[in-house]
Amino acid sequence: MTEPRPEVDVAAPVLEVSDLTVEFRTARGWGVAVDGVDLALRPGRTLAVLGESGSGKSATARAIMGVLPARSGRVSRGQVVLHGRDVLRLPAEERRTVRGAQVGMVFQDALSALNPVLPVGYQIGEGCRVHLGLSRRAARQRAVELLGLVGIPDARRRVDDYPHQFSGGMRQRVMIATALAADPEILIADEPTTALDVTVQAQILQLLAKLQADRQMSLMLITHDMGVVAGMAHDILVMYAGRVVEQGPGDEVFEHPAHPYTRALLDSICTADQKGRPLRVISGQPPDLGNLPSGCTFRTGCPQAADICRTRPPVLQVSHEHFGACHFAGGAS
Ligand code: ADP
Ligand code: MG
Questions:
Q1: Please, are residues 150 and 207 in contact by the beta-carbon 8 Å criterion?
Q2: Tell me: the pLDDT tens digits for 13-31?
């Protein structure tokens, strides 16, 4: 605490993930679900992680948060560096403390993540007691404040209510309050609006954007819906079959998508809006991660696939800060 601190570079990442590789146990042995992912979260910025179902978004988030299933999931390679320390190599106890205090997470299955038999205020207060060392009474008071902060009307009265007494959107707000309990610098929201209707979706996204800006948090917003990230993402990372296929500043990626898969995601926005339901962007099935094609993993569903895509895996930098893993990125489209 008393050590002199070096000049802080405001753009320095609070979290840097490199070569993250996650495996799950399957009937055929351990199978790779996330393959060498690099990403960085910067203070006060939102990183949207995009990709269709099964592309490894949740597994990436769970590995960062340290909540992979104990027996059937593991990080087999890589680093998760929080403020210069690789949390994967910390002793278990310290690892929990560091992550719990600095990273809050809203899980994909938010509704089942709340305990049905405990009042919401108690569940929110738990994080304050554990990570901030607050007394039971102070934690309850903080829970009321957090409920107010996430837009639950009449928070003082609702703090002792149970999850089932809230609507879906309100429960999602409670989940967000729980994730904010320890006042984290990083908030990971995994498909936070998927189960909600369109109006409530917009309200929850607005809330996340406001919290991110007011508290200058790093927000990692995971979604399969490119429409969700428009106007919200400072940076975008696109995953396909467990790998990063494109990464760059939000407006750059929207205006000049480098990868055919990102272009397909973009094309799907208008179509989905028109029909009022999400659309499968790529024809065919998502790839079998245990049996990926040679060369580019996207080539079997790609309209631009050529011979080189079969023989060589693509790694191509398009411009500073923006790259796409495609042999034709930035060129022959
Ligand atoms: P996304 O969040 O992008 O939809 P996931 O990270 O949940 O994708 O899943 C990535 C891959 O890992 C998928 O092939 C999925 O079947 C597999 N997977 C995820 N969780 C488990 C698990 N607990 N056990 C076995 N396989 C899993
Ligand atoms: Mg998921």
A1: yes
A2: 999 999 999 999 998 899 9
59 plus 167 within the same structural domain: no
User: Within 10 Å of residue 258's Cβ, how many Cβ atoms?
Assistant: 28
Q: Structural domain of residue 230, as residue ranges?
A: 1-102+186-271+279-289
Whole-number pLDDT of residue 284? 53
Are 250 and 262 found together in one domain?
Answer: yes
Q: Which residue in this structure is represented by tokens 């990183």?
A: 47
Residue pLDDT, tens place only, 225-270: 888 888 899 999 999 999 999 999 999 999 889 999 998 888 877 6
d(CA 297, CA 132): 45
Q: What total number of domains does the chain contain?
A: 2
Look up tokens 């979706």; give the residue. Answer: 201
Buried b (16+ CB within 10 A) or exposed e, 4-33: eeeeeeeeebbbbbeebbbbbeeeeeebbb
Nearest CA to ligand 1 atom 19: 59
Residue 163, in any domain of the structure:
yes
CATH number where 255 lies? 3.40.50.300
Ligand 1 atom with the smallest distance to the CA of 52 is: 3
What is the atom index within ligand 1 of the atom nearest the CA of 59? 6
8 shares its domain with 87: yes
Q: Determine the longest span between alpha carbons in the chain, in angstroms.
A: 67
